[in-house]
Amino acid sequence: MSARLHGHEQGHDHPKDHDHAHDHAHDHAHDHANGLWGRLRHAVTPHSHDTADSIDSALETSARGIRAVKISLLVLGITAIAQLAVVSVSGSVALLADTIHNFSDALTAVPLWIAFALGRRAATRRYTYGYGRAEDLAGLFVIAMIALSAVLAGWEAVDRLLHPAPVADLGWVALAGLVGFIGNETVAVFRIREGRAIGSAALVADGHHARTDGFTSLAVLVGAGGVALGWGWADPVVGLAITVAIALVLRTAARDVLRRLMDGVDPGLVEAAESTLAEVPGVTGVRSVRMRWIGHEIHAEAELDVHAATSLVDAHAVAHRAEADLVRTTPRLTRAVVHAYPSHP
């Protein structure tokens, strides 16, 4: 005897060694009839966990992500254009490196925008889990843009070391660096806050990327100050320092994005889920818990032990309670599949 509950996604993978398995979804908001007949009807009648509230919440989350990338694209675009105007008259390679990076940072909002829009589409017969993975794929584009900006910035800095050129309008260069810092830090705070609120690793990583850009913009001030003091090499050296900073951001961003693509989750989430499931009345043991991120949502599967003498209907009720507790206590968890198995001495 076994009972199986699918929280938000339906499937038909029935293990052959089970005496019985049922596979349907449930609406947390509906009222269950009392008595044996009501319990049996609840066990075999399909109904949906995808309530209007959960659907609206998912749509609101994606809409919030789209709003975040729109605003950040606008702010960083204005910042980069202002810096580019100063580069054209000053010839500062440090400012050019920072401007290139700011442009690339602004462009990373485009694939994230597309990914959030795709994530709002309903699941299909081909893409049965929906389109949430588009967000993770957009993270790869973010990594590629960071890598490209590092190569371009490094190339310009080395070229300026080998072929020195004067830097004009140092006051404007310093001001442009300050503008770059303010613009990037504003976007960083906004992206990180919104990304954490909706559970988007790609958006959070892009926020940290913007924050590092902001501090490298401040480094432009150092280069301008060095040139003003007669250190002609200060400008290209600061350009190289910015390149190193970009490479460090690349390492962190690549780690976070690739970890998502490899279905990596915080081990603390798994431990917390195991504790939650172990406390469900009727559960005698937790066999396994598996979790994965799909975009900014978590999906989970769990296998539980119940007493061998537990009836099918009661085992179903235990699985239903376990799924509800898991979704309620786990941040960003939207879908869960809970299996209940008879335990044997």
UniProtKB/TrEMBL annotation:
KW Lyase (keyword) present: no
Compartments where found: Membrane
Positions of region (Disordered): 1-32
Alphabetized UniProt keyword annotations: Membrane, Transmembrane, Transmembrane helix, Transport
Domain of life: Bacteria
Membrane topology, as annotated: Multi-pass membrane protein
Bilayer-spanning residue ranges: 73-97, 103-119, 140-158, 170-192, 213-231, 237-254
Coiled coil: none
Matches recorded under Pfam families: Cation_efflux (PF01545), ZT_dimer (PF16916)
Record keyword Transmembrane present: yes
Domain Cation efflux protein transmembrane: 69-262
Cation efflux protein cytoplasmic domain segment(s): 270-340
Family: Belongs to the cation diffusion facilitator (CDF) transporter (TC 2.A.4) family.
Official protein name in the record: Cation diffusion facilitator family transporter
